[in-house]
Design brief:
Two copies of one chain form a homodimer. Chain A is of the alpha/beta class. Chain A has one domain: SPOUT methyltransferase, trefoil knot domain (Alpha/beta knot, 3-Layer(aba) Sandwich), CATH 3.40.1280.10. The first copy, chain A, has nine helices and nine strands. A seven-stranded parallel sheet of chain A has the order 5-4-1-8-6-9-7, sandwiched between helices. Chains A and B meet through helix 1, helix 6 and helix 8 of A and helix 1, helix 6 and helix 8 of B.
Chain lengths: ~190, ~190
């Protein structure tokens, strides 16, 4: 299978008014998304943050859970935390993932794109089964990735649509990551007819 | 469609050693799971906690996001927070959900059950489309629901299995809820062939 990694972007992302901002690292994003990343076989989980003090915070969290008392107390956290890498810019994650070829960049968002522009989750899951270059899945914090990131992407995935609550598209990024990884890489057997 | 609700149980749940314990309310569980519950059309999200001070904490969180400054700043949180109900025992959620008939109790766990004992996610999704009594989906915090809760259940759902990381079954409860709601109630169109 291809190498697949996830990037959680803290800049450039949108705020509620659509302005481009930098968001703060959330401790539970690091844990939850690292655990989901290991469950679905990702090779890395990149946290993207332009501010050095915020990157150091992630390094301290990692150290606590890999070599420190956190890891001794809950050894199950060592594996997920080993996937975490923190870099200043999305480009750094792209560079680190490159081998002979650069990874494809697939972006995600909660809305704002038409069906025609986007890759369906079914089609994306099929593509990931085929041989090809690595894929970097980028998720935005705040109110989502800024437009220039989408424009740089090879593909943009369809939003996770609520069929129950029309116009409600406010999943947490932790939930959106989990759902999308399951749709793209999940165990087909337990959701398919016996 | 049937009325479907979710219960997040803080007692009786297991700790890492398999002892029965009470866990603390996690603020982000309230937010993330309420947002997922609204996305997937649930009628209620019950937080189960036997300690009055912990229930009051949830009431304060709700008030802040429904009538207080939180809701004025981020109006998108009002809808999810309105689904939240906090009760001392799982039985209270069952009673509150009952109309002519009591709800079916479906439990979830990360492991410890054989394939034969469990309802597959595909089968569960089909059942939810059929007319029938309401369904209460119970999730455990900590290391999962204690055995007596499973024994009281009408059905136990299959664990979310990692096909990539054998023996790793440590999703956060926030991620597990999101994935399971998507498998049971998600938009079939975006994950099905066009």
């Amino acid at each position: 299978m291809r190498r697949i990694a996830l990037a959680l972007v803290h800049y450039p992302v949108l705020d509620r008014q659509g302005a481009t901002v930098t968001t703060a690292i959330t401790n539970l994003d690091v844990h939850d998304i690292a655990r989901s990343a290991l469950t679905y076989g990702l090779c890395k989980f990149y946290l993207i943050h332009p501010i050095a003090a915020q990157r150091q915070l992630v390094e301290r969290i990692k150290a606590h859970w890999i070599d420190g008392s956190g890891g001794r107390r809950i050894p199950d956290r060592v594996g997920p935390m080993r996937l975490v890498q923190v870099v200043p810019r999305l480009e750094d994650a792209v560079l680190r993932m490159s081998d002979e070829t650069a990874p494809l960049l697939w972006t995600t968002s909660a809305g704002g794109a038409t069906q025609e522009q986007c890759l369906s989750h079914y089609r994306a899951a099929r593509l990931l089964q085929e041989p090809g270059p690595p894929v970097l899945l980028a998720f935005g914090t705040g109110w989502g990735l800024s437009q220039p990131i989408h424009q740089r992407a090879t593909n943009r995935l369809l939003p996770i649509r609520s069929v129950h609550a029309e116009n409600y598209n406010h999943l947490s990024v932790r939930a959106a990551v989990a759902i999308l990884l399951d749709r793209l890489l999940g165990d087909r057997e337990s959701s398919a007819p016996e």
